[in-house]
UniProtKB/TrEMBL annotation:
This is Uncharacterized protein. Residues 338-347 have a biased composition (Pro residues). Residues 329-375 are annotated as: Disordered. It comes from Rhodotorula mucilaginosa. Residues 348-362 have a biased composition (Low complexity).
Amino acid sequence: MSKNTDLDLQILSEDYKAPISLEKLDQLSSIQLAIAAGTSEVDTLTRQRAYHSFATRKLDYERRGPTGDTDALLEVPVDVPVPSSLDRCSPTQLLLYRFNPKCISNDLVQLATSKLFAKVKAHQDQLALAHASSSSVQALKRPAPQDHLSAALAPAAKRPKVTENNDAVVIGLNSCEAYGLADGEGEVDLGAGEPCMILDKDALQIVDCEGKEVCAIPGSLINEVEYEFKSEASIGRRACILKICAANPTEPSDDGLETERTLPSVELHLDLGVLELNKPPFLLVRKHITNWSNLHSFPCKDDPSTPPELAASAPPEPAKLSFAFSQHANQGYKKPRQQPPPAPPSSSAPSHRWSTTSTGSPEDPPPPSPVSASLARQIERDKAKLGPQRYLSSTPAVIEWTPGYIERQLEFLKAIAPSVDLERPHFTREQIRLLAYEPDASKLPVLMPPHDKSNWLPRISMDERHAIEKIFREGPFIAPEESAYLLKSGYYEDMQDYTAAFVQIRRARSLIDRAYSRVLQEGLYPAQSRGDPDRRLANNRVQVVEKLRNSLRERDNFFSESRHALIQVPHFAPSDFGPDVYNEFRRSLDRIVETEKEILHR
């Protein structure tokens, strides 16, 4: 391995999110100084001092000559010809690009930095995936009698006990529904035997009845986990469905090679059957998922009716694995009906949400009287006049759910294939403001539906239901009948406007997927087959649109600086797709940025 390759790996493996302070710049390595000079995570003064410190350190190193300690990065010359394409630059070249005296374009410096950070993210994500996949494979390859997969598929009487010290937990599945996998939506065919889910310290793996991997998801890529429980089958035993939403899981390639392809975000609904909730394997499954949640900072939601025994800090003595398989594996479960709220203590707005438990204990408050419930609903109606802005937090929204993310993609497609007439979504100024920030769970409305729910069950669309779930993601669970009441009762008019914004962005996300395919089929493929004068540009345009169509990660790298910041300048050079494409997209991007600043008052 060459020295330059070693240096590239050092750069790609560096922690780009490590805190950097002005007082400790002299303690940083040369690589860390160069990173600090270009990262937007630190203030302007620190970036300027880091740039000056790196330049001074390099000058002193060159004057000192080959004596003393060597520094691989400081040995690389910076006064070199500017490369014609940043795509062909190594990580070292991208990192040193801003120090090149021949580079006089601020846009290209920013582009080089963005490409470097994209390479770093892709490299570190790939390492995480490889580590997780290796762990999953090792779990499957353990010889008997420690082979967990063989133990899971063995008759119940021969299954071993599971302890906290096991590397992996194996649990049977009644069924698995997947949304977002390349093979389609809905029920996944797991065979006629006993499929299972395997959890180790790094990843979750779904294995069919023949032991073949269906899907592997590293814990680092999980966005959200939710437990859904059915009513008790017997004392301490309940049917459980595990819902997992993850970004960019991997799936084995169809050609049998040891490669992986990037998939869109996926959602899994795993029917675990009837389990004893205060014994393994459920407690061990829960422990793994809780560890991932703490390590990777994703929400882990319990069904509101989760029994209190699940909060136990340590599992009891190990017990035999219990796998309960229903003959009706495809039958879905619904969450328990939620009960009416407690009566408010005074004429003020109620301080409790609509109660989701009904244990019949003496401490449970009685259902609200018609007078108090009516008063609470009137209070909510009055509050609705303040508008949906009252539900917003100060946390910027994730870019994928913002109009600016959609608009940037459509403008790029318009620049690269102007002859294709694309459908465009329309967002009002208010919707752009509403979608710019995350909802604040503590500010969401208090639900006070009438005790008799038989007369107010209007139908709502699936888009509206998903919008409500998105808004209340960090708050309490909202049942389907509550969603209908929230949108149709007339007491929460501002929530109707808030939901409409999420419905619009959800439909726009589907629209953009179709737009990529249309641009390829109607614009770029025909141009490529005709043989454009500049063959390289035609091929580059096809390749970039194919990548953006197939990978959410490519879209993020191309149109964003981070999970909460969109690009302000193009992430490509004029030579990549042609000056006409660059100039058209740059003009559109400037217009979008100015509009966002005006609307959001930034």
